[in-house]
TrEMBL record, chains A, B:
Tree of life domain: Archaea
InterPro entries: Rossmann-like_a/b/a_fold (IPR014729), Universal_stress_UspA (IPR006015), UspA (IPR006016)
Protein name (database record): Nucleotide-binding universal stress UspA family protein
Signal peptide (from-to): none
Domain UspA, residue spans: 3-139
Organism, as annotated: Halobacterium salinarum (Halobacterium halobium)
Entry similarity comment: Belongs to the universal stress protein A family.
Length: 139, 139
């Protein structure tokens, strides 16, 4: 039983990791980082994709984590791994949950580009609507 | 720290109680039953409202629970209470969470009248969008 936490280094993403750690202390945590590519960008040439992928070295390490999140995970002494993927965030999150042994998605209400504190972010909204599993939107 | 579970006796509502019990075993559970009234119905006369309220006797008891949910809560030996309210379900759930010391809402993706197994129910969708707290949609 693995819990998926979409992770982009933002403060809501950190809060989601914290919530997952608090409520699911016996599970494996999978932190998924999606490098966003606009639709059609894949057709624009592999160079761009390769450029994007440069930032994704050592996906199994904790390199992509903020110090705060890293400290939190170390304190929790929890089994976790990082995964990375490229594409549309909501679609990648749902598809990762479908293809892997994910029982629950725990996510922040907004990612790095979220601007509204009132309205739900479009990524969270789409994931809640389409995910095959239980979804927790952390506020 | 109280967890709110909207409860209408449906199977998704039972699953939500089960999820809440499994992930929040130290919290108080508040089971909220909303008797739905269409907008404007309150203007139609208090008789109708009183008729609706007849079913809400002993809100503090476990009378409104299915046997299955009652057994689950007894096994969990968990502190819980039932609350009842009348009105638009999504609005009542959000407003109850705002007015009480609710830290998280755990709800089924569909209620008693949910027809689709694919799309998210409109009550769940509205609650996720408007709730001031973390919301878990159980599938």
């Amino acid at each position: 039983m693995a819990v998926l936490v979409p992770y982009d280094g933002s403060s809501p993403a950190h809060d989601a990791v914290e919530h997952a750690v608090e409520t699911h202390d016996t599970d494996e945590l999978v932190l998924l980082h999606v490098t966003e590519l606009a639709d059609g960008m894949l057709d624009a040439g592999v160079d761009i994709v390769q450029e994007q992928l440069k930032g994704l070295q050592n996906p199994a390490s904790s390199e992509g984590l903020t110090e705060e999140t890293q400290a939190l995970l170390e304190d929790a002494a929890l089994s976790f791994r990082m995964e990375t993927t490229v594409g549309n965030p909501a679609r990648e999150i749902v598809s990762f949950a479908e293809d892997n042994d994910i029982t629950e998605i725990v996510m922040g209400s907004h990612g790095r580009r979220g601007v509204s504190r009132v309205l739900l972010g479009s990524v969270a909204e789409t994931v809640v609507r389409r995910a095959p599993t239980t979804v927790t939107v952390v506020r």
